[in-house]
């Protein structure tokens, strides 16, 4: 399939479509109407109705020019760059009375808008401000993530995994798409969503919630038979509890769970659901981390708002996936590189479909046509044809990303 090839975008003047509304400062503020318009816009955006969504975000800003989220959604949804909007957001960002949440949203919006305009130094300056403001609003200690991953590897080590093989719930329905956020997991899910026998369930927290009910194993680990028997029963119950929380339509042979952070629980998932399949999506860590840093996540991803912490978390993820790779039985996990997916889309799409035990369907090549709500940060990208412009994008910010690159190297 034809793919636009633009590995690094050159600075330059981009299209500047009209806002199509009265000037914002000529309107009376009405925050309630603004929120209603913004919420409608978000819903339309999730359905891929971008022109209508843009009109709603413009309407929201007309009623409340200080609605930072509406500015960000407008920038992310409307193609190209708009110099009038950039100037308006720049002026607004300097208002001392602006609420902190709106200031954070506005800084992220400016980072994206200026990036599209080819003004990379300015874009990163706003991204840095956005992330520093957001990072100051919560406490985060990466050592707790390291401790969790270590404990999971200790709990589900090679001996335990061999003893538990085939002992969980026998369902063949789940396909877990895992990896780092912004690595291409939504694109992979959209490829499968185009298959008539797949139900795309999106990002589910169902497994992590089910783990919260996992019982304490009373059997003495020094008695391997009793310990494995009790643990096997608990894992079958865990798999069943997870499945009970996912509503799968009758036609589906497989369903996808695209919660990237499920990589943490991959061994537990494989033990609880031995017939599940995994697709691990990988992308250049510098491109992945830059995309995370430029994103204001709805929740979670607390490691993403500081370059050093982001690089440190990526190292933890990389180490953990190395251990998972050695633990899981062969043919359970398929690894897909985002760059390979873009470079030879049909071949990789066929690998993905075959891994799920499904017959090939050419509809998977037209993933952008799938009519389903998409709730992730990639909602706009996966509604359009495959585009290679994000590969190697980190080079545009190489100097600014030095703390990240140092942290990635450890």
N to C succession of SSEs: HHHHHHHHEHEHHEHEHHEHHH
Portion of residues within helices: 40-55%
Strand content: 5-15%
Supply the number of helical segments: 17
Shape, please? globular
Q: Order of strands across the biggest sheet?
A: 2-3-1-4-5
CATH superfamily of the largest domain: P-loop containing nucleotide triphosphate hydrolases
- Strand elements, count: 5
Number of domains: 2
Spans of at least 5 consecutive residues with low confidence? 1-28
What is the CATH T-level topology of the largest domain?
Answer: Rossmann fold
How does the major sheet shape up?
5 strands, parallel
> Please, what is the average pLDDT?
89
Whole-angstrom Rg: 23 Å
**Highest-level CATH class of the largest domain:** Alpha Beta
Rounded to the nearest angstrom, the distance between the terminal CA atoms is: 39 Å
User: What class do helices, strands and sheet pairing give?
Assistant: mainly alpha
